[in-house]
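Entry 14. Ran structure prediction on the chain below.
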Amino acid sequence: MSAKTKQQRPKARVAKGFRDIGPEEVRGVKRMMRVIEEVYEAYGFEPLEVPFIEYTDALGKFLPDQDRPNEGVFSFQDDDEQWLSLRYDLTAPLARYVAENQQALPTPYRGYRQGWVFRNEKPGPGRFRQFMQFDADTVGSASPSSDAEVCMMIADTMEKLGIARGSYVMKINNRKILDGVLEAIGVAGPENEARRMTVLRAIDKLDRLGVAGVRELLGKGRKDESGDFTKGAELDAAAIDRFAGFVDAGASTRAETLKRLADLVSSSERGRAGVAELAEMSMLFEAAGYGEDRIKIDPAVVRGLGYYTGPVFECELLMEARNEEGQLVRFGSVGGGGRYDDLVARFTGQQVPATGFSIGVSRLYSALKLLGRTEEGKTLAPVVVLVMDRERIGDYQRMVGSLRAAGIRAEMYVGTSGMKAQMKYADKRGSPLVVIQGGDEKAKGEVQIKDLMLGAELAGSVENRTDYKEARLAQFSVPEADLVTAVREALARR
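Output, structure tokens:
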């Protein structure tokens, strides 16, 4: 007889570049986002949800090559042979939404969105292919005041989340100034678009790679620790030196930085326009009381995406903390944004000014957690009502119902195991209390309440009803009519 074919079972594993998220983080992130929503709503922004999937040609700068439909994005074809993609960010879908609904929307339109985005890129430590963003945008205003308001709103958001003034900074710059520098070294015009993007992405990595690493990317290229080589912008030494002077032009005051930048781009009309926009924003910050400790001009901020056309900004956390391995961590940027006046025009043919900011939700939450600014501990696991007698399951359900009606998180054990397994279940759930009522307690009109934090050893020692009676640690009886009051008081003592 031939041997039976061995059944092939799939291996239980999460896809590369993705991760599962546990209940503590899910709850903590939701609380954090509610705080962000409160600030955004206070500034007059309205909520919007956009689909996870867009037509691929709506992604603009992220439109894949025909021969490489998954370059940078996750794409597939539908039954009509139309290319669809998982959204790369929340900005391109907003541009499509505004173009599609422009006549019905107020001008300017102010909206916020939150949700998952997907990038088909090489994953690494802390770098995932799926992550959450929280965006806020103003569409339809060309005034630098709309850019300034976004920066002030993010500063307010950080403080509302418990990050003290001086522990964060909003850093701003203007891509028009960078364009002025590019013009000065002869890297202007559509024929140099690829080189300009290489320059932008190189400078955007200054915090991670340092000046030496950026110089390599501006020149021939750079090999990373894994041996992968990234081709550079192939600028000559003089051009690289000019860029080094540009990113190093920051001073202790906004006024002095503006003066230095004005000198760098004095021969460029576009560069001078960028300096003027930053000057107007700086005036608005001063008028609203947002000093240098909250918002500063930093020429090293360029943002790596190609669709920015004016002011760009990043929010950086300045403090340090130790992670679970005891290593000292500096958090760096937790979000960024800027002006993108050409994105809606892809759909309408008419330029529609827009500006916005995107918070990296997971990164910001990780920073808040290390700093002890999250509220994970405030959600208690449910009180568990044990099922001692199956024929009285209705009684246990009524107990659970009375606890829930009183606003107490509670559940009835719905498995089929005995008392020992039920106790272990409650312990694994992290339940603060269990409610027990066997036949004897029922006859007396009582219930037993056990505090599992004080009597955790009971879960490993109870074998049967006799053992249970002998182990009364952190356990007390109350009349069944007083169940809700007794549970509430026991939880309050915690």
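The first helix runs from residue 23 to 42. Will compare against last week's run tomorrow.
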